[in-house]
Amino acid sequence: MNTSISKLREEVFTTKEVSRQLGLLTTHEKNMLLGYVVQELRLAGDAIVRANEEDLKIAAKNHDRLRFDHGRLEMSIREIEQIMTLKDFVGEVIEETRRPNGLKLERVRVPLGVILMIYEARPNVTIDATVLALKSGNAVILKGGSEAIHTNRAIVEAIHAALRCAGEKMRGVNEHAVTFVDSGDRAIVSELLQMRGLIDVVIPRGGKWLIDMVKQESRIPVIETGASVVHMYVDEFANLDMARDLAVNAKTRRVAVCNALDVLLVHEKVSEKFFPMLDEGLRKSSEERGHPMVDVRSDERRGDGDFDTEFLDYTLTTHIVSSLDDAISHIDEHSLNHSECIVTDNVARAEEFLARVDSACVYWNASTQFSDGAQFGLGAEIGIATQKLHVRGPFALEGLTTYKWKIRGNGQTRPL
Fold first, then answer.
1. Quick one: three-class SS letters along the chain?
2. Same structural domain, 181 and 168
3. Does residue 376 fall inside a structural domain?
4. CATH code for the domain in which residue 73 is found
């Protein structure tokens, strides 16, 4: 059923009310709720895959990001089951002190409240955002891209069925804990972004244009995620076999992800030897995946904007640099502060790179495709935060909480 602007505020108000009850659920109740989600997703598996096939027929591109077959659904279900085993941060006492006047102070983790997720393409985000929100005691409003509308609709139908089951056992829980914006109307998004006071935080997950639009229009606090121009620097002291393997993996393991390599910087002293090795490695990897050779755009054939493009396909920009300083200066100018890597056997250079490069994830001798919540031991992620406030890098359950102070006294008054 399509969402209209006239009903939107009423729906969000109801979601806000439900969020207060979600914040009071015990860990056992939240895990039970996630168990219902697993059950309903499995029951709806065939319907979800059929809906995804309909979206794939319509889509002109980004099939890898959009595809959600039985294998990917099962992967999402396994992630839910893992999240059920993870620590529940809500209620954790971060610190506890007693003042000289006898006041007892506790700083305690609490949910954020109502989260608005605005995202593109990937149907798994519908599941990840829902499950992480519910486990951390938050309600969530989902606004996915129109290219995945049929898949998202089928997934949310299963989630709502799970919430109805849970509501029979948990007071105040109902399907309004997850609100799905079933509309492609651009005015809907603009209206949502003005609902400060009803929505506590907005998380855009997608390309730079989406994140910039949300930042410009939103009256709600924004956690920036996703957009990236990922760099790898092959130093003159690099093990070139290792460098080739890392660059190939960072570029081709999955190309349509935010941690995939976009720009490869190579020191001039090793470039002549390294580039033929790279070409061979990329050719083999491309053949294994049934794709054409990676389009490597060297300094001689680079186009305008190549240094600032998140390709999300089989395209790689390369650039020869003269020093570590040159490489870091290039990254400073073109990075979106997501993930960067140095490949070198020189410890001093590596540590300098790690210290000076100001991105959320900075690597030494490892593929940037490890920038992922599950790989960091956090479970499924809500996104990769590229800002500096509240959270940074892959974030999940802990990042979806804030804290409040609890103060206990026995009649203390503040002196004049």
1. CCCCHHHHHHHHHHHHHHHHHHCCCCHHHHHHHHHHHHHHHHHCHHHHHHHHHHHHHHCCCCHHHHCCCHHHHHHHHHHHHHHHHCCCCCCCEEEEEECCCCCEEEEEEEECCEEEEEECCCCHHHHHHHHHHHHCCCEEEEECCHHHHHHHHHHHHHHHHHHHHHHCCCCCCCHHHEEECCCCCHHHHHHHCCCECCECEEEEECCHHHHHHHHHHCCCCECCECCCCEEEEECCCCCHHHHHHHHHHHHHCCCCCCCCEEEEEEEHHHHHHHHHHHHHHHHHHHHHCCCCCCEEECCCCCCCCHHHCCCCCCEEEEEEECCHHHHHHHHHHHCCCCEEEEECCCHHHHHHHHHHCCCCEEEECCCHHHCCCCCCCCCCCCEEECCCCCCCEEECCHHHEEEEEEEECCCCCCCC
2. yes
3. no
4. 3.40.605.10
* pLDDT attached to residue 3: 61
Burial of 65 (0-12, 13-18, 19+ CB in 10 A): buried
Global pTM reads 0.88
Token representation of residue 227 = 């957009």
Residue 62: predicted pLDDT: 61
Q: Are residues 41 and 179 in the same domain?
A: yes
Domain that holds residue 45: 5-225+382-408
Whether residues 56 and 182 fall in one domain = yes
- Of 281, 261, 280, 273, nearest in space to 366 by CA: 261
pLDDT of residue 1: 46
| 202 shares its domain with 284 | no
- On whether both 304 and 396 belong to a single domain, the answer is no
| pLDDT at residue 50, as a whole number | 98
> 114 burial class (0-12, 13-18, 19+ CB within 10 angstroms)?
buried
pLDDT by 10-residue block (mean), the chain, 416 residues: 74 96 96 98 98 92 84 95 95 97 98 96 93 97 95 98 94 94 88 96 91 95 90 98 98 92 98 97 90 88 91 94 98 96 98 97 98 88 89 94 97 95
Are 194 and 246 in a shared domain?
no
Q: Which of 327, 333, 118, 72 is nearest to 226 (CA)?
A: 118
Contacts of 357 (CB under 8 A, 6+ apart): 328, 331, 332, 335, 340
Total tally of structural domains belonging to the chain: 2
Residues composing the chain: 416
